[in-house]
From TrEMBL:
The keyword Iron-sulfur does not apply. The lineage of its organism: Bacteria, Bacillati, Actinomycetota, Actinomycetes, Kitasatosporales. It is found in: Membrane. It comes from the Bacteria. This is GtrA family protein. Keywords: Membrane, Transmembrane, Transmembrane helix.
Length: 188
């Protein structure tokens, strides 16, 4: 007969990977999609303006990367929700702006830049934007609500704005505890 106090075997849970492991996963998944995106942008830019092709590929790659980051990079064990997609879209908008500005600057400096030069500039801008996205995704988008609440609580405590809650909720101020507002002293 089994003891009712016997411990149940632990089930495997997916713990959130540390910053180094997350960054390596981010580079593999985001970088892989980024390299494929750079070729797709170049091919699509042959049929339409570069900024339009960059926008189309940025939207598609952001959707794909947000799912990869939710499931693989930050090991949430689930699909990304609407909140994660919208927040990731905000960081992708900044990345789109960075790559567009870099390509615009390249074409101002060298109007007939070759495909290899465009690839180098695009991947360089994407790499810098990707490092910024990693920080945003790790600290805010996929941090989890408890981690974000913990940061908010610690910030409020440092500012002196958060009071420790009364666990029982029964404590009253001394003026309300006694009818005349003063607490009687007990003789020792």
């Amino acid at each position: 007969m089994k003891s009712p106090l016997a411990q149940k075997p632990e089930t495997a849970t997916s713990a959130t990977p540390g910053p180094v492991a997350s960054f390596l996963r981010f580079v593999i998944s985001g970088g892989g999609v980024g390299v494929l995106s750079s070729f797709a942008v170049t091919l699509l830019a042959m049929t339409m303006p570069w900024a339009v092709s960059n926008a189309i590929i940025t939207v598609a790659s952001t959707l794909l990367c947000t799912e990869l980051h939710a499931r693989f990079t930050f090991a949430k064990g689930r699909s990304a929700g609407w909140r994660e997609h919208w927040q990731s879209a905000g960081s992708a908008t900044a990345a789109y702006t960075a790559t567009s500005v870099a390509m615009y600057a390249l074409h101002l400096a060298q109007p007939s830049a070759g495909t290899l030069t465009e690839q180098i500039v695009y991947l360089g801008a994407s790499g810098l934007a990707g490092a910024g996205r990693f920080v945003i995704l790790r600290l805010y988008v996929f941090a989890g609500r408890r981690a974000q609440a913990g940061r908010t609580t610690r910030a409020l405590v440092r500012q002196g704005k958060a009071a420790a809650p009364d666990p029982a909720g029964l404590r009253q101020s001394s003026s309300k505890a006694w009818p005349n507002g003063s607490r009687p002293e007990l003789a020792a």
